[in-house]
């Protein structure tokens, strides 16, 4: 249950970024989360509501995109999405997969903001 | 009012990752091998570490340990009996150690400097989920599993086992009464982390510990202990 820490880290990071857009309202926060990042989306959504209270992110929607694990196979040379997290094998040839190319991401991809237009 | 999308592409744990990178550079400069021990509560991390510290010291190696728990300094007191410097980190409810906690506890550690050490062990909070996201700058992440826990634990917690550099099976002295299926456990670990080094140990009888200590010496760069 470290989703609360994760939510707090997102708020910290975004408070910094949002400072570049004074007066703007953050509508949506989009994340890219690998299937191996050990983040449970439901817990994170639950923690989000609590964490953003009283911050400039209050009322924003959290959108989580889960990325499957992709491995590069040294044996057959192909990249492929793992069929399950219970077996790290190349989906093409069945050889053990050790070279992971995707699946550990834990990133803020983008934010959607409403900007207040400055009066001239 | 205009709506726009701002691309950020920034790591959520960037702050931890940057601190961990700084720690890693300091460990390398100091020539100290740092290991992060992760398992469920009750696997026997502390007993395994007690044995390791005692044996390494008996062989003349300079060792120390940081130990993470939610509360109490019981583990630090147990480990300190080995004669090695040990410092407790109490996380007060946080389910993992992070790089900042390590940095803070390395600072002002009486009588201990990284440069004066050959091995530093970090015993993480007992938890098989959260510690996997937090890099502590370690060279080797060790996932431990006891014979009492069920052979399918690696399948249930693939994130942790997949991110480990070595796996340790503990309490093999009671494998038989527990009905532990050794072949299945080894197969499951390999299914999640193909080719990983696996040590089958008992801190009670000392079984498998020579091989483990040999691995540590090898990992430090071939200096024998």
Describe the structure.
The complex is a heterodimer of chains A (120) and B (225). Chain A has 2 helices and 6 strands. Chain A is of the alpha+beta class. Chain B has a 7-stranded parallel beta sheet, with helices on both faces. In chain B, helix 2 runs parallel beside helix 3. Chain B is built from 8 helices and 8 strands, in the order βαβαβαβαββααβαβα. The chains are: A alpha+beta (120), B alpha/beta (225). Chains A and B meet through helix 1 and strand 6 of A and strand 1, helix 1, helix 6 and helix 7 of B. Strand 6 (106-115) of chain A pairs antiparallel with strand 1 of chain B, so a sheet runs across the interface.
Layout: helices, strands, pairs:
The complex is a heterodimer of chains A (120) and B (225).
Chain A: H1 3-18, E1 25-34, H2 41-52, E2 61-67, E3 70-72, E4 79-81, E5 99-102, E6 106-115
Parallel strand pairs in A: 1-2
Antiparallel strand pairs in A: 1-6, 3-4, 3-5
Helix pairs in contact in A: 1-2
Chain B: E1 2-11, H1 14-30, E2 33-38, H2 45-58, E3 63-69, H3 74-80, E4 86-90, H4 99-106, E5 119-123, E6 140-146, H5 153-156, H6 158-163, E7 166-170, H7 182-192, E8 197-200, H8 209-219
Parallel strand pairs in B: 2-5, 2-6, 3-4, 3-5, 6-7, 7-8
Helix pairs in contact in B: 2-3
